[in-house]
Fold this protein.
Amino acid sequence: MNFQLIFIDMKVMLMSKRATYTILFLAIFALTFAAMIEYSPEGLKSALEAAKPDGSAGAFEYMWFEDVLKMLLLMVVSFGAFMISDLEDDDTMGLTLARPESRLDFLIRRTLSSVLSFLMIFTIGSLIAGVIAWAIVSSLDLPLFILHQLMILPMLLFVFALTFFFSVPLRTVTYSVLAGFAGSLFLSFTYGFALMADPGSEPSIYNPLAFGYRVMAGMPLAESFLVVLVSTIILFVAGGLWFIKKDI
Amino acid sequence: MTTLISMNITPVSGDIMGAIEIKQLKKDYKDIQALKGLDLVVEEGQVYGFCGPNGAGKSTTLKILVGLVFATGGNASIKGIDVINNGVEARKHIGYLPESYGMPGGDTPRKFLTYMGILSGMSKEDVAKAIESIAAEIHLTENLDRKIKTLSKGNKQRVGIAQAMIHDPDILLFDEPTTGLDPLGRNEVLDAMKAFAERGKTVIFSTHILSDVEKICDTVGIIHEGLLIEQGSPDELRSKHGCKDLDEVFLKVARHG
Amino acid sequence: MDNVNLIAIVWHRAMNNLFSIRGLIALLMSIYMIVIGAYMMDALMEAGTVTGELYTLFMDNPDMKFQWFFFDGALIKMVTMFTAPLFIFDAVSGDKKGERIGILLSRPITRVQYMIINLASAILAFGIVFFGTMIPGYFSIQPQVPGLTIEAYMATTGLMFLLGVFALCLALFISTISKSNLISFIMVFGTFSFLMLPNAMKYNSDAFLALSKATPHYYASYFTTHDVTAGSYIAYAVIIILLSLPFLALSIMKFRNEDL
């Protein structure tokens, strides 16, 4: 494994416009979330409090959070698509794979550099977002806010893997991000509607994108985390095996 | 800088009515001047080879004629129609093949050519007839119903040529049409252009492959740093510069600009 | 040679969009929304349950007017965030990136016509998917909501379609200014995600209500919580169109004089 190449890949990803946009979106997310909390009238807050079951946050508070979170999904799907689709788009896949590097090594290298880059960008963005949010909502528990954001990382990595999986058959960046985004919307709407139909219930542990809600709502996490982890690994492995075997 | 008179290039005047007339055409980009006052006339029915080093302004000239790029000075006309102010009318008379272009890989050539024909103002029935006729001419018939992404480079180029010819234009503008093709493919493209010209049409193609120019061109124009620096038939240019082939002429002229 | 048959070209391009992966995604998501909507209506209309009380809370509580979730919370989201922009987000940027723009614009069409073709074909494709799912959707929702007349439903649906047209105009503009399909995708879908927010909060915050009135979402969702009146309906339809036109104009202005 050529670690130098991993660092070069990471440098390219970290210096890219996508990285900047992701940090920007995280900041916008924090701003919006904080503004919603700060400027909601007390009547709304107490009505939401009344609607929530014991020990969990209101479904609708999280729905609004989710609207903005979808913007973050956009950035995540772009990272997932860029594992291999950008090479298809600029016709350098053939040139790259003609090197003395196995497809498996190539995939591991790209996975490591993409995931590590994304983790770094997300962490930096979360910190910046947290500071902005705290500046607007002074009563905000900053460490808790940042921790909440970091705890939704498993969910975001699942979306990353989902988009990568789609990118293997669909090839181009455009279709990969579309499929990844559509899949994410499908999963997040599904558990959201189930909650609306039955407020106070817990979202299905088998829905990986419900993990973020569980984090925000203080629900048990262990089983749900396992589902997210396993489904992420399955998607990476399945996509990887498919890529290794297919004609380029 | 060599003047037009000393190079014996006929200056463009209002009396000359060519298929294409370009007068003092200029194009400035941010930091470079791609065309510096190009004068050029291409007579009807000619096959005109447009040669020059990379970055000389060949593609820019063709793109201005097609309306993809906007000139910063001068004017150009196609069959007397001003391309700058009346581009749509001018484009009814031209078929264009860019140097690099994409086609929808999931479509078949038939479907793609049908769309291009309709986009050029043809009826569906006329397009269908034209597709069969052109496909036979350029040996595309057996690939008409295969997906474009499965075609070889040569066949894809045939599809590109077909889309330029589908609406039976008066003038073909081809930007490096034979680059990347095998000798058989190159010959077929050259034959298609020659056959097109023999029907009284005009062909202008830019190229680096001067042997192609020698094969079919009536007139060769050499552009360098945004100006036309030499023009004439292949025989004229060879004897004028005392060279055995156009490659030598090109090297000599381009080096000494 | 006749003048270019723009209708045939628009139809051709719309069909290409529909019978493609993106058309399939749009159709699946639209069907999904209708199915979910019918399910939600069914669930919420059950009397004597927590969900029935929640419905009462939403619709009757004067302190907390919550938008009729199916349209505002879900359908508008899908229409503007996803289904409509899907057909146009890479119209211009995709033709540029795929190097098709030279071949397309060498045809005897103006650049304005090219932009109109893009917009019209996307409206057609989106309209087919949208009404193709909304109209059957009425028949699955109506049994749970006997008071819902076809006129009121189609009026609200019509405004939502116009909201989709707004989304298409804005997405076309973004596609014109962006340099790649990916940036186009992120900007388009991100913008619409963001535009949703004031609308979700509008009845509970004066600040967000004011902000919401600057977006067409307010006008498209108005009749989900108020009676449909003909005059207001026409006025709101005009407002949504007026909010859309500047983006179309900007797209054309940007593209007209651009070197390609």
